[in-house]
Design goal:
single chain, alpha/beta, elongated
C-alpha cells in the first residue's frame, strides 16, 4: 500500500478564514490526500482533529504542516508530537521551513531546533530563578500563599462538626488531597 500524505491545518479563531484557506491551498499543493483541519487555539487541551490525524497516520505515511506554530504549542510539544509520529513510522514535513524528517538533514534540523529551544528554556528558567532570588533578598517576593492552607482552620472546624472530606471539598472549594493534607498535619 502506498504511503498517504496527511495534512493538518489549524487557525486559532473562527475569524481566520483566510489563514485557514491559505494553509489548505498549500497542503493541497504539497500533495496531501487527506487533510484534517480545526479552528481553535493551540492552548486548548484537546485538539480533536490533530488527534484524529495522528491516529489516522500509518507506517510510511507523511504528516505535513505548513508552519511549525500550526502544530505545536512549544518546542517540547513539537518534540513529543514528532516522537509520536516517529514511533508510528510516520515522517513529518514542515513546508515553510523545508524540513522533512524522512531525510538526514531534516532530522538534524529538528534536533537542532529542539536543542535550541531547550537551551532557551534553561536560560529563561535560570534568569527567573535569579530574579526571584534577588526579589527575595530585597524583601519584595513572598511567593504565593497556598490557597488551601488559608482555609486550614475552616477544614478542621468542619471536620470537628462531623462533615465528611467530600462535604468539606464542596463547601470550601478546595481539593480532596488538600483536605487530607490539612487533617494529617493536626
Amino acid at each position: 500500500m502506498a504511503p498517504t500524505i496527511i495534512g493538518y491545518a489549524r487557525t486559532s479563531t473562527l475569524d481566520q478564514t483566510y489563514g485557514l484557506a491559505a494553509q489548505l491551498r498549500d497542503l493541497e499543493a504539497a500533495g496531501c490526500e487527506r487533510v484534517f483541519q480545526e479552528q481553535l487555539s493551540s492552548v486548548d487541551k484537546q485538539r480533536p482533529e490533530l488527534a484524529k490525524a495522528i491516529d489516522y497516520a500509518r507506517n510510511g505515511d507523511v504528516f505535513v504542516i505548513t508552519k511549525l506554530d500550526r502544530l505545536a504549542r512549544s518546542m517540547a510539544d513539537l518534540v513529543k508530537l514528532k516522537d509520536t509520529l516517529e514511533t508510528r513510522g510516520v515522517t513529518l514535513k514542515i513546508l515553510n521551513l523545508n524540513i522533512d524528517t524522512a531525510t538526514p538533514t531534516g532530522k538534524l534540523m529538528m534536533n537542532l531546533l529542539g536543542s535550541i529551544a531547550e537551551f532557551e528554556r534553561e536560560i529563561m528558567l535560570e534568569r527567573q530563578r535569579e530574579g526571584i532570588a534577588n526579589a527575595k533578598a530585597d524583601g519584595k517576593y513572598k511567593g504565593r500563599a497556598p490557597t488551601a492552607q488559608r482555609k486550614a482552620d475552616e477544614v478542621k472546624k468542619l471536620k470537628a462538626e462531623g462533615k465528611t472530606a467530600d462535604q468539606i471539598v464542596v463547601e470550601l472549594g478546595i481539593s480532596r488531597s488538600s483536605v487530607f493534607r490539612i487533617l494529617r498535619s493536626e
